[in-house]
Design brief:
Chain lengths: ~160, ~450
Amino acid sequence: MKEAADDTTATFGLLVALGVAGIVILGIGLAQFIHFEPPGQRTGQAVRIDGVYDYDVNNKRVFGGDKDHFRTNEPFAAIVDWRSLPPDLLVGASWDSGGFALDAGGVGPARAADLIEKTVVPVNRGNQRFPAGDYEFVVERYAGGRPVEVLSHVWVVVVGS
Amino acid sequence: MALQPAAAYPRPHRAPRYKLAAAIGGAILLVYLAGSVVEIVAFRDFVAIIDVAGLLLVGFFAFGTWLIIHAVDRQPEKRRLHLTRAAIVFGLALSLFLFGVNLLNANLNFVGVLLCIPTTGFALFLLRWVDYNEREPWRLVLVAAGWGAVVATTLALVFESLWSATIDAGLIPGPGQAVATAFNAALFEEVPKGLAVVLLYLVMRDEFDDVVDGIVYGAAVGLGFNFMETVVYMSVGGANQWLFRQWLGLYLGHATYTALIGAGIGAARQLRGPVRKGIAIACGFTIAVAAHFSWDAWLWYFPQPNDPALQLLSLPGMYLAMDGPFFLAVMALFLLGLRAEGRALSTQFAAEAALPDGAVLPAEVPVLSSVGRRIDARFRMLQHRGWYGYFWLRRLQRAQIDLAMERWHRARKEIDTPLEAELKLRDRVLAIRAGTKPPA
């Protein structure tokens, strides 16, 4: 059946073209991944995060005990022990929320020695309420103007009030 | 195998008190079940849900075990039938268990389940309807959707959690981590979904003819997966998730991705040589993973206006821009497959009509070769002979199409059943035409 062989040829050709397109898409993704997660950056350094606490916005102080759950109307902040890092290490700390890692406040990048007074890092979404979801607090080492290594991180969950 | 001689008293006398005890036991079970159902409906009681699900599971396993005992001991002459039924019953038990796990993950979102059944059901109906040459049996379409809803979702949950805990956790939040997370979702959702199509391809070869069938089964798996994912996302994201996933993204998301896998496997069904088959299957999986990956990794580059009115325009645009090209690729493959099927069927109808004892009459060839004429002929039969005539002609046409499909595969040497299968299909057509009971 000659006509049937021709039919499968067209289908096969289209599938191969789609497969090549798929490889290109995944290749672009891999390049993007390598750009933002450059290999060979692991130093083995780690920073101590003392915990995440309720945060008094007016007095800029934490209170209560270490928690991993907050309500949408409860500000919170992480406490970082910057002294646990070499003083000249270029570092920063940031809060990210949701699956798209939206910026939710932070400090740095700066030398660890310059951040010793900024042990309290509050979450900041620009208003008094925080959308429910996962929040990640991460301390990163910087090089060439961008984060290249995670030194420590902690997650909390914000639930609807 | 020698059978044991029948016992002198195969059904020994049982005193009436045993029947009374069994009736009391049955009544207790029914009251217990009814009470649990009332508690679930009225109070959404979690323990009652476990009670009912557990009892159903025990019932399924007991019934499956009873069937196996019948297969090996009571009716060994019907072993295959009983074992098949037992496998179906155990499969239902496993599906029920996995559905329960997924429902727990969705915070027992029964409302979501009820809302998604009509939309997903209609999508499955439409999917099967457009496969107009030879529609796939409902049982297999539903098995595919069921796999997507309960098996693929469970496997994806397990492996995605492992990836998140081991790989994502050490990555810098931002684009790099987003790419890794997207690859995680694409790989560990598409592979479990694609496995359903692979299994259908291996086990149900008679109902897996070509690229069209692969697309139908793949899309059905995707629709099932989308069903359960909507139920889970609605439990945290509310009704908006239903709107996005059961309307805008009904065919554009998971259904499109897994249809691409199905297209690869379906094409492999008719390609010659293991290398070309392997390339087709690999290409299907690659483009499906890539399509899913691009949605998850690059979705956030799409403009997201804060104005709700603009969002109404932005969201459909987002779906069309991100998934539209892949949907068009599926449509192109589907149309190519339908065209190939149509040409092959026309050729085989004509060849069958040329046989002296053929199951297709020469006058039927142009009718059978056109879907429009087939439907027109059925409605003319409806006018003249009523519903009985309509269904008779539909059965006849379907049997003739089955025969032509069998001939097509045999002509292309892509069939592993004996010639006897074709003869039986021909006998079936002749029996339907003669009005006698067709052979099984």
